[in-house]
């Protein structure tokens, strides 16, 4: 009984399929035989139609040529003040972060032994001068030989040289500021024993400051001594100025860049050494530049190309590019003023493909 029911169900499904499925092609076939608004006319029109495109009429423009680089703030002067001789530090006259004047005493090393040696030499010098004075009188009356007098005179000069050595040693017991600037964090405390080369503190001069940056070698001929550059700090929209004071005489062989140094005033200590700064250098402007929209450029294996309209058809043109802005790029070779540059529908174009210009 169950088998009969299954067979009956299959037959019913086949009957319904014939009614709803096999009847549809016949209806479509009948409709195809009649007239249709989209008959053979509509199908053939798309296959051979022109591609609609927008074009940009190239022209000569005046553009400002600016170079942007990343710079670093460098102190105008910086020195790590170190001891020149051994000894105990008996005085440290600095306050961290304070401003000191050139020649101001920073640190003093114990010099009692040197002062004692200096006193001894000065006593001997005084005695030698008295002896020399007496012998000079005796020489005048030929009571002594000239040789004896010259030995005494030479003794005075020798003592004077010894005195100069001790004075030089005494000078090394004092560490003085070589220029005016700000003292950094001290590296040692009073009472410590110093050895030659021991660092006491760092002295930095931050007004003015130096700005070091690099430029690609192809722009090296535009950088001139004395020219001004603009500076911008992160979080500060104000434009500051600096003056180029030095250009490295050689290009970095690995990076192909040229180092440039500028100087900027820093009265309010806005610039801090080590700070990042954006540098803008204005190069020579171009009064006859052809600038095109960047979306018109098509990168290819051999370089870059664009499409232009000639006689109603798309034609390829290989181009050489120059400087770039946020929306346009300079064409240095491959286009001339007055060319109709295709800027839309580029991916659907082929050489000699017919195009329909929507607007100029």
How do the helices and strands line up, and which of them pair or pack?
Layout: H1 2-20, H2 23-33, H3 40-47, E1 51-53, E2 55-57, E3 60-63, E4 66-82, E5 87-92, E6 99-100, E7 105-109, H4 112-140, H5 146-172, E8 174-176, E9 181-183, E10 193-194, E11 199-216, E12 228-233, E13 236-247, E14 257-264, E15 276-282, E16 286-293, E17 298-300, E18 303-310, E19 313-324, E20 328-333, E21 340-342, E22 355-357
Parallel strand pairs: 1-22
Antiparallel strand pairs: 2-21, 3-16, 4-11, 4-15, 5-7, 5-10, 6-9, 7-8, 9-11, 11-14, 12-13, 12-15, 13-14, 16-20, 17-18, 18-19, 19-20
What can you see in these coordinates?
This protein has 360 residues and is of the alpha+beta class. The chain has three domains: 52-64 and 286-357, conserved putative lor/sdh protein from methanococcus maripaludis s2 fold (Beta Barrel), CATH 2.40.420; 66-105 and 178-284, Efflux pump adaptor protein, beta barrel domain (Elongation Factor Tu (Ef-tu), domain 3); 111-172, Helix Hairpins (Orthogonal Bundle), CATH 1.10.287. 26% of the residues lie in helices and 39% in strands. The protein contains five helices and 22 strands. It has a six-stranded antiparallel beta sheet, with no helix packed on it. A hairpin with a 3-residue loop joins strand 19 and strand 20. The chain is elongated. The model is unreliable at 22-47 (pLDDT under 50).
